[in-house]
C-alpha cells in the first residue's frame, strides 16, 4: 500500500501523525459533496506531509471562495463558509426549488455548508459544518477539532462532540461522547484536562464527558450527532425532573 486517502469528515493532524507513526503509510485527505459530482479538492501525493489535515487544492475548471456571514468574500486565512462554482455543480434538487434557491446563488455558486479557510499556499481547510458549530458565548467551536484531539488519546477508541445548552449559563457548551478502548480506565476528569491543555479557553469541554459503547454513525461513516443530541436532551430532562422531585 502506497497511500491512504481519507474523506467523509475532517482529518486532524494528530490523527494523521498517529496513523503514520504506527503504520508508516502516508495518509492524505480529499473533499467533495454529492452536489458537486462529487470531488472538488484533493491533496497531491507529493504534498501529503506539507499540509497535513488540509482538504487539498481545488480541482481544475472550478472556482471557490470562503464567505462570511454578511455574504462577502473573505481574505486568505479568514474563516467562513466554502462556496464553489464549476461545470460539475448540480443543476438543483429534484422538485425542490426552495432548497435549490437556498443552496445555489444567482451567479452559480454552491453553498457547501462547510466552514474553513484557504492558506497562502492555496490549500483549502475544512474545520466543520456550519450547522454543527457550537456557539459558546459568541465564540464558534468546531466539534471536529475537539474530536481530533480526543481520538489520539491512547485510551480512546472513538468519540463525538456536540453542543448542549446549559440554562444557567445561557449558552451552548461542548460535551464529548467517548468510547474507551477495551481495558481502558480513563476518567472524565482525565479527558477534560487532556483537551484543556491543547485548546483555547472557550473550547474546553465544559459540558463534560459521557462514556458510551458506540458512536452512532451513518453507513458512510459520518457521526449522527442528532442521535447524541436526543440523548443529551433526555439526560437534561431526567436531571430536571429529579431535581423537582426533591423539592
UniProtKB/TrEMBL annotation:
The keyword Ligase applies. Residues 2-94 form the AMP-dependent synthetase/ligase domain. Keywords: Ligase. Residues 145-222 form the AMP-binding enzyme C-terminal domain. InterPro entries: AMP-bd_C (IPR025110), AMP-bd_C_sf (IPR045851), AMP-dep_synth/lig_dom (IPR000873), ANL_N_sf (IPR042099). The keyword Ligase applies. This is Uncharacterized protein. It comes from Discina gigas.
Amino acid at each position: 500500500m502506497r497511500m491512504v486517502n481519507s474523506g467523509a469528515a475532517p482529518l486532524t493532524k494528530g490523527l494523521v501523525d498517529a496513523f503514520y507513526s504506527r503504520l508508516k503509510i502516508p495518509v492524505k485527505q480529499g473533499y467533495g459533496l454529492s452536489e458537486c459530482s462529487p470531488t472538488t479538492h484533493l491533496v497531491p501525493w507529493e504534498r501529503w506531509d506539507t499540509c497535513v489535515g488540509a482538504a487539498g487544492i481545488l480541482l481544475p475548471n472550478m472556482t471557490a471562495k470562503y464567505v462570511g456571514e454578511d455574504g462577502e468574500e473573505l481574505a486568505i486565512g479568514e474563516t467562513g463558509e466554502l462556496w464553489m462554482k464549476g461545470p460539475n455543480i448540480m443543476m438543483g434538487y429534484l422538485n425542490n426549488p426552495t432548497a435549490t434557491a437556498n443552496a445555489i446563488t444567482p451567479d452559480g455558486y454552491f453553498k457547501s455548508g462547510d466552514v474553513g479557510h484557504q492558506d497562502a499556499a492555496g490549500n483549502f481547510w475544512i474545520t466543520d459544518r456550519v450547522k454543527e458549530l457550537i456557539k459558546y458565548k459568541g465564540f464558534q467551536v468546531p466539534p471536529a477539532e475537539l474530536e481530533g484531539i480526543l481520538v489520539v488519546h491512547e485510551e480512546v477508541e472513538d468519540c463525538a462532540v456536540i453542543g448542549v445548552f446549559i440554562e444557567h449559563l445561557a449558552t451552548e457548551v461542548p460535551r464529548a461522547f467517548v468510547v474507551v478502548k477495551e481495558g481502558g480506565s480513563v476518567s472524565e476528569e482525565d479527558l477534560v484536562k487532556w483537551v484543556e491543555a491543547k485548546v483555547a479557553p472557550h473550547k474546553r469541554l465544559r459540558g463534560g464527558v459521557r462514556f458510551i459503547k458506540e458512536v452512532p454513525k451513518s453507513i458512510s461513516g459520518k457521526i449522527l450527532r442528532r442521535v447524541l443530541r436526543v440523548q443529551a436532551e433526555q439526560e437534561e430532562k431526567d436531571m430536571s425532573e429529579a431535581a423537582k422531585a426533591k423539592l
